[in-house]
Structure formats: structure tokens, C-alpha cells
Write the C-alpha cells for this entry.
Amino acid sequence: MTRSHTALILGATGGAGFEIAEALHRRGWQIRALSRRPDHGQTLLPYADWLKGDAMNAGEVADAAINADLIVHAVNPPGYRNWRGLALPMLDNTIAAAKAAGARIMFPGTIYNYGPDAFPLLKESTPQNPHTRKGAIRVEMEDRLQRAAGQGVRVLIVRAGDFYGPHSTSNSWFSAGLVKPGQPVKSVTWPGRAGVGHAWAYLPDYGEAVARLVEQDARMAAFETFHFAGHWFEDGRDFAEAIRAAAGVPDAPIRRFPWWLIQGLSPFVRLFRELSEMKYLWDVPGRLDNGKLVQCLGEEPRTPVRAALHTTLEAMGCLPETTRVKTEFNLRDC
């Protein structure tokens, strides 16, 4: 069969979907995107072929996937609402569409799959024993993808830590928990324990890694998983200090995340209940072993953390004009 070098992106307006689309486009791929609001998407990715549709509609996903070589399943339920009722049906629609089109599925993975027994170093083969509802759903999603691979659907999963970047979504930990979008950084809130490391994935680097892996399709097995290491500090609090430096406010206070309030209100607020379940990810170090990815690509794309944070904070409106100019001048030293 003659392939069209076309990628269908589900979730192209989200952080991972956007950056994967950008990286594939740089390599000459034709980008197709399905969205309930294609007019909004066209301002973000003007080169993409935007189709109006819903990832919950199997027929619309199947029609959008016709002649596609790759389906990037980067769509998630908004916030923490109704994951089981939305995430699993959307994935089933993608699997059916990929099977009909003969396309490979690319699925951005997380470390939610892993329970506390898996840490501190996560390999692709590390057993997944989640103790949270969202983690269990993530495991089920990967199980469905692996079963689909046994039925002829090729699958690529790239797991990473918490995303951040210029196009990260409002419900990311970085924008929802660490700093306040739209205003200069006056303080940084840190959810982790002192001395505990945490994995961060800069979205443009992640998108580039995915695109490079996609180019290795002919060498891959039907079901492939890779870990993206991203930026890692042995003491995760150092990441908060790097935010202060990138924002030009090295003396800004680093405040503790109000877990006591989140846990106290968790019986009454769904979002807080879901956040409380994931607290263990901030209490123990969780580092992703990227040895397999490096062996495949030769290296992992890695933007210096100060430059990555500057770009992220600027896009979020968190840098005053004077800081932007000064920081941009010094980025060459990163």
C-alpha cells in the first residue's frame, strides 16, 4: 500500500498534541486534526487540515483517519472529570480507526500507571500496580492498546513526567500549581517533599523525540514503549529555584503546596479528591530510565532547563518586559 505520510492528531490544541504536530510538520508530514472547534485550532496550527468532529464519535474519527499513516491519540477528558466514561471510549474509537486505516497509534503515556512500589527508577518493563483510579484507567488504556497490537494495530507509547512548555494546558501542574499564569512570578509553590526528585518533560523536546521515533517505524515492533527522561533534579525543589532564576526573581519565596487543604476538602470536591490520590508522586522520587530511547535515537532532545523555563514563563505571561529582555540576553550562557 502506498502511504500518504499523513498524521491525524487527536488533541492537537493540547500541549503534547500541538508539539508532536509541530515536530512532524517540520519533517514534511501532512497534519490532519479533528476538533469540535476547528476555527480555534486553525489559529494554532494554520498548516493543518482541520476537520470538525468529536473523538467520542467513532464514525467521525474513522472518517478523519482515512489514508492516515499515524494517529496521535493525545486527547484527554477536561480536567479530572469522568475519565472512565470518556477516556476509554475515545481510545476504542482510535483503535478501530487505526485498524481500518492501517495506521500506527502514538499514545503519550504518563507515570500514573505506576504505584509506589515501582519507584525510584522506572523502566519500560517495570510492573504497573497503580493504587489510584486514574492510574488504573491508564493501565487499562495501555492494556487495550497492547491487545490491539496483537490484532494487527501498531502502537507506540512514550511515557514522560509532568509536562510543561509554551503550549501546556491550564490543568498542568506547572500552570495550575507552581506559578500563576498572566502575572509576574512573585512566588513559586512546590508540592513535593524536600530532597525528593521529580520528572519534568519540556513539551517541545517531547514532541521532537516522538517525531524521531515515528521516523523509526520500520524498525519497531508492533507494540513499542519508550521512556522520556526530560529534566530531572535529585532534589525537585531545585526546579522551583530554576523557575525563580528564569523569571529574574531569585529571592522570590518558595511556598509549600496546601496539601492539608486539598486533602481536607477531597470528600467534597472531585478535583481535590483526584489530586490527593496522586500525592504519592510528590512524596517519592520517580525518574524515567531513557536508555532504550537513547539507544534508538542516539540522544534524547534536551533544551537547557533555563531556556525551557524562560520560554514557558514568557508564553504564560509571567515575565515583565524588563525581565524578558535581560533573560533573553543571558540565554546564550545556558
User: Anything to note?
Assistant: The two ends are 47 Å apart (CA to CA). Residues 167-198+235-282+304-333 form one domain. DSSP finds 14 helices and 14 strands in the chain. The chain has two domains: 6-163+199-231, 167-198+235-282+304-333.
